[in-house]
Specification:
Blueprint: E1 2-11, H1 19-29, E2 33-40, E3 46-54, H2 59-69, E4 76-82, E5 86-94, E6 97-106, E7 109-115, H3 117-127, H4 131-146
Helix pairs in contact: 1-2, 3-4
């Protein structure tokens, strides 16, 4: 278990297209995760709650970035406890294309495998095979290759 910090900023008067830029800047800063949730503010105005999950040492830098890049005038933050699966990025080769996959373990059991979207998208564009077919093939190959392996068995 680890302790991280969650930051929240309500934003009601900014072009929502700018969120992608802010997400990227925050992720480049090194925060663990960024997300936004729709909400209603006073006077029933539509807004977004920008949320950031980060280590304590990034709180001030993340807040500064939020103030500089958004119209928010305040940020709430509080500690949160997190239990996370162990993760490893591995590759599988499907139809000559190398695709990255995130393998997740809880204890010694593989609990999730996800195919890297950008790799599957690139393979779909290159081959003309639908994206969802690439995702299906990659997951099938990844489960066959990694589904029974323990985290410690992987050579990094």
């Amino acid at each position: 278990m680890e302790t991280l910090w969650q930051m929240e900023a309500n934003i009601d008067d900014m072009n929502p297209q700018n969120m992608e830029y802010i997400f990227r800047r925050l992720l480049d800063l090194g925060v663990n995760d960024v997300w936004a949730m729709p909400m209603l503010m006073k006077k029933c105005r539509m807004a977004s709650m920008l949320c950031v999950l980060c280590r304590e040492e990034l709180l001030e830098k993340a807040a500064d970035l939020i103030f500089k890049e958004t119209t928010s005038v305040g940020v709430r933050y509080f500690p949160v406890s997190r239990i996370a699966c162990r993760r490893s990025i591995q590759t599988v080769t499907v139809s000559g294309e190398t695709i990255h996959c995130k393998i997740c373990w809880s204890g010694d059991i593989v609990t999730n495998i996800s195919a890297e979207y950008d790799d599957c998208r690139a393979a779909a564009v290159k081959t003309g095979i639908p994206l969802k077919e690439w995702q299906r093939r990659v997951l099938e190959a990844a489960w066959q290759r990694y589904g029974g392996k323990k985290y410690e068995e992987l050579a990094d």
